Amino acid sequence: MSFVKIVESFLKEKKRVVLVGNAPIKTNVINRKLLSGFIDDSEVVIRMNCASNYSKGTGKKTDILGVLNIGDPAIEFSYRKKINKYVKKDISSVWFSRPLNLYDSSKILTQDELSGHILNFQELNHIPTHAISKEQYQSISKMISPANGGNSNDPSTGFCILHMMLLAEEFKGLKKFIVGFTWEGWVGHKWEIEKKICLDLHKNGDIYIL
Question: Cα(46)–Cα(181) distance, rounded to whole angstroms?
Answer without folding.
Answer: 13
